[in-house]
Design goal:
Keywords: Signal. The protein is an alpha+beta fold and 273 residues long. It has seven helices and 14 strands. The longest helix has 14 residues.
């Protein structure tokens, strides 16, 4: 039987955060300079992103051996990713940023850019992109993510303003708290690489299938114009760290993904003469 996409109903909370998975960068990618003006362009504060980099260094024990990268994804239909270019730019700063084939990048530390009120700018118009932190411990099995890596992504994104959330006063207060990722039962939306059917938690001999309600987002986004996960909702899954750690799941817990197209490929093989 083919697997059907399941849009699980979830409690409507104000906070709606999301992140993405990524692979390692291609060191041979070309560097392209962004010529477009900042006005109306999709961009992120360099100072905020540096704050996220500092959080990564402070708490990297959550993801031993991992490196911090950032990633951009299309936020809505019609956003072309071919020809996408990024630049660190300010009044006195112009530094092209190498973008890998998987749309991940490493952000350089530049004291001058931080003092120049610079931003990481794209050559796409405002609200075209979803911006994410990506942290991946080496040596993971294929089609898995590690719980400690995802938690550290959350912490980095809180500091770097890489979250998709409704800009309500309560939410603006929450992101300023000391450790909302671990201490609050908020819904955190992540993106897998491909459309999801199910996720299994694995920690040693312990196994548990993530409830279907944790996949594919909420039935009715609170404020769709402020949220960037609905366009890729077939890849969305939810991680509630407070709940999982409270039940004894460790940093080394793996989330093993079962993808929709895996089932389609198996079915196609089975019907071949």
């Amino acid at each position: 039987m083919h697997k059907a996409i399941r849009y699980g109903a979830m409690p409507a909370l104000l906070l709606c955060f999301s992140f993405a998975t990524a692979s390692q960068a291609d060191p041979g990618v070309p560097v392209v300079e962004v010529q477009a003006a900042a006005t109306g362009r999709d961009q992120k504060s360099y100072r905020d992103m540096v704050a996220g980099m500092q959080v990564f260094e402070q708490q990297r024990a959550l993801a031993p051996g991992a490196a911090l990268r950032f990633k951009v994804l299309p936020r809505q239909a019609g956003v072309a990713m071919d020809g996408l270019a990024l630049q660190l730019a300010g009044e006195h700063t112009q530094l092209p940023i190498a973008l890998a084939a998987d749309h991940t990048f490493v952000l350089p530390m530049d004291a001058g850019a931080a003092g120049d009120n610079a931003s990481v700018r794209s050559n796409r118009k405002e609200k075209s992109l979803a911006w994410r932190a990506d942290i991946r411990s080496p040596g993971l099995p294929q089609d898995t993510r590690r719980l400690g890596d995802l938690l550290l992504e959350c912490k980095v994104a809180m500091a770097a303003d890489l979250l998709a959330y409704v800009h309500h006063p309560i939410n603006m207060l929450v992101v300023k708290l000391a450790d909302p990722c671990s201490s609050l039962p908020i819904n955190l939306f992540y993106f897998a690489d491909r459309p999801l059917f199910s996720i299994t938690l694995i920690d040693g001999q312990r196994r548990s299938v993530l409830p279907a309600a944790m996949l594919h987002g909420t039935d009715s986004p609170l404020m769709a114009s402020h949220e960037d996960w609905p366009y890729l909702r077939d890849r969305v899954y939810t991680v509630k760290f407070k709940l999982l750690y409270g039940k004894g799941w460790s940093d080394d817990t793996l989330l093993r993904f079962d993808y929709m197209d895996d089932d389609l490929a198996t079915t196609a093989q089975a019907v071949q003469p």
